[in-house]
Every structure is written in structure tokens, then in C-alpha cells.
Write a sequence for this structure.
């Protein structure tokens, strides 16, 4: 996996699996912060991205994973942005063959919980 620019920064196995308890603790910290700092009664807990869209991003030959960019829709609504990335974290456009709009490689505006989860 060595590149012409040196050692890769990431690979297809970057990240680690964690336990349910660790995941719950991370979410609790997030929710506590949103309630305390932003005074949100029912903060956004998650955002859902469909399998077909994720696979479309991952099908690029140079893609080793998905980079998640933290974004905001407005002052209180977080909105994640996803893009495929290579082993040096360069953003990749998906293969646009046959797509109606090939200049839109970023994935965003997915349903959020609690809105769609209740």
C-alpha cells in the first residue's frame, strides 16, 4: 500500500470497533453537551445514509473509506457530509458514468433522528 508520496495516512481498516457501552457513552457526552451548551431539549442523535449511496461512493477504485465532514444546516441542525477518500485522505469523486449529475460526489441531507426515528 506504499504510495509514491510515502506511507499512506489511512487504510480500509482504519478505525476500530467499540462496544455498545462505549458507543452509548460517546452519544451521552454529545447529547449532554448539546443540551447544556446549545440548550436543545431534543438534540439530533444520528443521521441515516442508505446502503446504495454508500456503495456508490465506495466503488471508486482508489477509495479506501468514507470521510465524514461535520457540517451544519443552520445554527442548531448538524448535517454530516460524506465523501470517498483515498489512502492519503484525498477527497474522491465517485465514478460518474451514467449519473444524471456527475458533479455531486458529496453525500449529505440524510434523515436525522429524532425526527424520523420517533
Amino acid at each position: 500500500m506504499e504510495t509514491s508520496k510515502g506511507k499512506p495516512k489511512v487504510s480500509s481498516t482504519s478505525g476500530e470497533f467499540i462496544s455498545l457501552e462505549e458507543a452509548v457513552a460517546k452519544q451521552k457526552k454529545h447529547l449532554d453537551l448539546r443540551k447544556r451548551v446549545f440548550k436543545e431539549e431534543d438534540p439530533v442523535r444520528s443521521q441515516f445514509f442508505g446502503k446504495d449511496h454508500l456503495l456508490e461512493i465506495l466503488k471508486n477504485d482508489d477509495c479506501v473509506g468514507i470521510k465524514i465532514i461535520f457540517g451544519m444546516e443552520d445554527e442548531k441542525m448538524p448535517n454530516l457530509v460524506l465523501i470517498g477518500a483515498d489512502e492519503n485522505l484525498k477527497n474522491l469523486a465517485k465514478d460518474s458514468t451514467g449519473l444524471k449529475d456527475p458533479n455531486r460526489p458529496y453525500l449529505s441531507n440524510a434523515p436525522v433522528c429524532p425526527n424520523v426515528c420517533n
